[in-house]
Amino acid sequence: MPHRPITVGVDYTAAAWQGAGIGRYTRELIRAAVALGGPFRYVLFYAAGGLPSDGSYLRDLRDLCNHYPQVRAVPLPFSPRLLTIIWQRLRLPMLAEWFTGPLDLLHAPDFVLPPTRARTLLTVHDLTFLVHPDRSEPRLQRYLAQVLPHSLRRANLVLVDSRATGDDLVRLLGMPRERLRVVYPGVSEEFRPLPAMATEPVRQRLGLPERFLLFVGTLEPRKNLPHLLAALPHLPPDTRLVIAGRKGWLYEDIFATVARLQLAEQVQFLDFVADADLPALYNLAEVFVYPSLYEGFGLPVAEALACGTPTVTTNAGSLPEVAGNAALLVAPATPPNDSRTLAAAIEQARHAAARLREAGPLQARRFPWSQSGRALLACYLTTLRD
Q1: Phi and psi torsions of 37, nearest 5°
Q2: Which residues, listed in sequence order, are joined to residue 10 by a DSSP beta bridge?
Q3: What are the pLDDT digits (tens) for 49-106?
Q4: Domains of the chain, first to last
């Protein structure tokens, strides 16, 4: 292990471009790791072609660099698409070090490794494209099927968001278990029970009903929203559902289901909700419902639990790890199967609200970002020793 400071390069592209998902994960994890100090210097490099310089995620990055002198940002003069073509499709030997300078470690938190001479860590969040290929965006599925095995072979250590994802890597791609480490994502301290004085302004601004069920996440097939919509007719007629999330891919069935079941008066689509409003949104919900068919972690479930929101989710993938005994779990199903079962679980959550509101924050405390940061730094040191 070097006695000089350890220089860690991090592919920060997702963090610079994406509001939710891997973008938010990368921002939170790297900030938590940097805050812990230690013998590390960080070079956060990202595809900057076409990225507005006044975007909020770049402001976050500048704040991070200004606050911590051991952090340096390096924009690359390529769009994400062009950089993907250069590094992953063509596999041109254009080393990351050409832009960052010498690196001891390179951490790629978004499925694929750039070319480098450094020791490498790769984060794999889930294997949706293999577990549920029919629920994956076709181009992304083909891309990951081509490039992920190559990156896995090159990685010195592979990080996963849950034990379930690690098991999937062993089972489906033959990864040696000794090269895997679980680094759970965390839940920010902003996600906690809030008083009405903090939540009511958000209710008014977003035009939310007094009582509602809530879903938060990208609109895509894996989230299984038609199943949740099919459960609404089995609930009291005054039940309202609020769906917060941007359109992803193959989302047309969601809106077709709303039309077919004549649910337009019961369902409100918010599109993307800013991070600052999410804690209040969870707090305002009567029940959070997340009927996903598969998750590598399921951060919205952890956030809802942290806010004390009664939660219903499935026992698919990692979700039992995240929810523990603090949520009601149902078997993953697609409509028209078991829509009554999901409706019954929602009603049960309403009746057990007091218990679930108490249990949720206790379960969510298992996932602080500070713990995620410590686990990441331990993986950095392990990679240098091995």
Answers
A1: 75, -145
A2: 44, 107
A3: 999 988 889 999 999 999 999 999 999 999 999 999 999 999 999 999 999 999 999 9
A4: 6-186+368-385 (3.40.50.2000), 196-364 (3.40.50.2000)
